[in-house]
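Let us walk through a complete example step by step. Step one is to write down the protein sequence. Step two is to encode the small molecule, zinc ion, as a SMILES string so that its atoms and bonds are unambiguous. Step three, shown after the inputs, is the structure prediction itself.
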Amino acid sequence: MNKEIVREKLLLQVEEDGADAADQHPCCPHGPTVLFYRQSETPSDGFYACSAHRNPKLCDFRMDKIQWEGNRLKRLHNVRDYPESTMDSDPDPTNHLKALSQDEVHAQYFFDQKALEFFADQCRLLKINQVVCMGAPRLHFHLRRNHKIQSFLLDFDERFGAYLSPQEFCLYNMCNNHFFYNREPFELFLKCNNNDRVLIVTDPPFGCRTELIAHTLRSLVRLHNRINCLPATPLSIFWVYPYYMTNYIKQDMPELQMCDYKLNYTNHSRYTNVGIARRSYGSPVRVFTNVPLELLQLQPAEGYKYCDKCQRYTGIENVHCDRCGNCCSQNGQTYRHCQFCDMCVKPNYVHCTNCRRCSQREGHVCALYQSMQRCWLCGQRGHIETNCGLWLQLKRRDRQKKKDRKDQQYGCIICGHRGHSERKCTLRCRYFKESQFMGQALIVARNKSNQKIRKL
Ligand SMILES: C[S@@+](CC[C@H](N)C(=O)[O-])C[C@H]1O[C@@H](n2cnc3c(N)ncnc32)[C@H](O)[C@@H]1O
Ligand SMILES: [Zn+2]
Ligand SMILES: [Zn+2]
Ligand SMILES: [Zn+2]
Ligand SMILES: [Zn+2]
Ligand SMILES: [Zn+2]
Ligand SMILES: [Zn+2]
Ligand SMILES: [Zn+2]
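Step three: the predicted structure of the complex.
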């Protein structure tokens, strides 16, 4: 919830690839900075701050945009020479190096053996032979050693430079796509033959802004296409992040879908399946991917099953809902269908008639809760259907339908019937013109004076 508030108030802008001098951002020791500005202000009132450190005590770079424009003395990009590498290909250093687990910087948590095998299995199924491990060092060592898959590690932890040659490691900041060393070896790695299949796996710290990671992923795909003289061609992506960040990821990369595999870390007390601090419904960490989910395989021996109706693997606890047409559980519990919300909800949620939704019982304050909801009529955030200005306008225009519905809390606001919500009402198209693009909906009121639109 905290993150939501911060996101609403503080917008950000990252430096574009090959930005003109006029658009360049100043650099801190971690590469080009990010321009932050408040929602109520314009970008020119903003300030530049470090893209990688989420605590000013760890990188205190801060410069007002006005000040930067005033002197425009750009610091030099800090391109370093390669470190001396021992190039010892045997020991996986993630087993003995002290993990940099400070959440405001590296948040270094390593996959358990099953998670490593999950990735290797999918690579085999998808016939992937080249992997970019962006912030996934243990996976890099695992793939090269046990599966002979070519892999390149991009990570913010320079200790890996002592174990890996420049042909397979570059010190890198994924929040601004900044290479601290020469990036030519990486470009060489990306150069492909016709039958090469490339996958990017990234496991960023969960405190990273999703806009920055999405921007970087798009830049890497463009770089791959440019190097191989391809038109706009997607690359397979596995983005490891917790299920509760789904909405943020969908907003930035709507083409990604969540796979229900639960990933565990060996050095995290909560995001694991062992130890007393583990969460009762298992780790919340998932994989978001643009690979069709029906192509991925999860092991029954690890608690997964195949759903014939969804045609994909899911958790054994995830019961298919015919009304929703999906196995809806996201968090490892068995969800239940709420007939008033007309969707599947967490089993401990209770329906609030005032808010017309199911939510947690504890700490539920209707006004605050409603101010964070997305309206099921107009699609805007900040109100629910009973306070929808657009709907009021439409109702006023449509004199036939102006009788007030008595059972607004329970029935569909559009037709007044129970058993479905406004989202699934068959009369919806009379009032709203909607278009869908990559999972995002654009909703506008139908123009009553325009007969052509009305007849559609
Ligand atoms: C959650 S850990 C993921 C490790 C992965 N689970 C594994 O076992 O291979 C995050 C990784 O991202 C790296 N990292 C953190 N911030 C980064 C940044 N701004 N740019 C690139 N890498 C970063 C960390 O050093 C760490 O290795
Ligand atoms: Zn910095
Ligand atoms: Zn299903
Ligand atoms: Zn359902
Ligand atoms: Zn409900
Ligand atoms: Zn309420
Ligand atoms: Zn509305
Ligand atoms: Zn209806």
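Step four is interpretation. The radius of gyration is 25 Å.
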